């Protein structure tokens, strides 16, 4: 029974049950969950059951244990029997402690105690009062200078007592947000090891100009290492100032595409992870494009469980997008072993999908050749070139030789006329697949 055939209400109910499980009841609850679904499937009531009203017995709160009358009376007798001894001991101990703690001759101890009470009283008073009142804190605050820590609009932030919608229990974090004052367009990336200083951070309008200049430099063929350092510095300034808007999304999207173009998967995965968080906040961007990239990356890592979960959460709008449709078609071709369709999709990948497919296309070529060498005795090298999307017959020959499968019936013939001998090539391809492609390592994966 595939979960794809489940009604949406059942999926929501299963997700709710899984979220309520704990380590103590997980095994029992999962067993009961499977039993309930199996019975409903057998009775053909998956679509008619009101799943919102179904409650697993193993997830219901258990009543507290009730002590028997005999044990309750026995415990009470023991308590009464030992109460007089306890009171006697407690009285003697408390008297001795009071004599030591309240010794009038120990002035230092009395001063320390008074200071502690004063400090605790001050903390309680701050908790009970409205946030950010003009009282003096007993502790030094790094945000004491209002000229350095302003709201994102550039003006000092204060609690709006006239706003009836303002919650006095929610801190106004904008009051403590740094607004940079640096006017430098370019700045190399350095990891922060201390509290950021406003004079080292670029404000929002400077960051916008920085992005424009970086795009111009990229078109002028600037080195990627320099561009990457500048983008990481730009991202850092956005993070420090807590700027999360469409401009932030644009910065991460552009950096992710540049990283894909040069094969820097560490930076790409960092950008992809941040973009997912920004999209979940409802900030608009190229959601469908990067959804397709995410699917292809999961195919690259062969992470089937995460892939199935992610695909199952796609909306109809996302599935209708050409890039997402292409990524789902790639998933289907790989799952079915349809290498002809796979390499046709590779040659016609939208956006920058081919850059991600480059990372796993050799693995799929080996898998396709393993099937082809079992089905044929000989194969024309030009046929392999066309079927597996090699640029030239020479590239196909080089690929076979690299994987120790370069067995040809006419080894001295030109590439256009070369014929692969499939019988000796097949075992070598299987060995190469096990050695080189069985495990996948993705740098910077999150």
Give the end-to-end Cα distance, rounded to a whole number of Å.
31 Å
Q: Which secondary-structure class do the elements indicate?
A: mainly alpha
The averaged pLDDT comes out at 80
Based on CA atoms alone, the radius of gyration comes out at 34 Å
Q: Give, in order, the helices and strands.
A: HHHHHHHHHHHHHHHEHHEH
Total strands: 2
> What does the largest sheet look like?
2 strands, antiparallel
Would you write up a description of this structure?
With 446 residues, the protein is an all-alpha fold. It is 57% helix and 1% strand. The protein is built from 18 helices and two strands. It has helices spanning 8-20, 26-42, 69-101, 107-128, 204-219, 224-240, 246-262, 265-280, 287-301, 304-312, 316-320, 322-336, 339-347, 353-357, 361-375, 381-387, 393-402, 422-436, and strands spanning 378-380, 419-421. A two-stranded antiparallel ribbon has the order 1-2. Helix 6 (224-240) packs antiparallel against helix 7.
Which descriptors apply to this entry?
446 residues; single chain
Tell me the layout of helices and strands.
Elements: H1 8-20, H2 26-42, H3 69-101, H4 107-128, H5 204-219, H6 224-240, H7 246-262, H8 265-280, H9 287-301, H10 304-312, H11 316-320, H12 322-336, H13 339-347, H14 353-357, H15 361-375, E1 378-380, H16 381-387, H17 393-402, E2 419-421, H18 422-436
Helix pairs in contact: 5-6, 6-7, 7-8, 9-12, 12-13, 15-18, 16-17
Give a nutshell description of this structure.
With 446 residues, the protein is mainly alpha-helical.
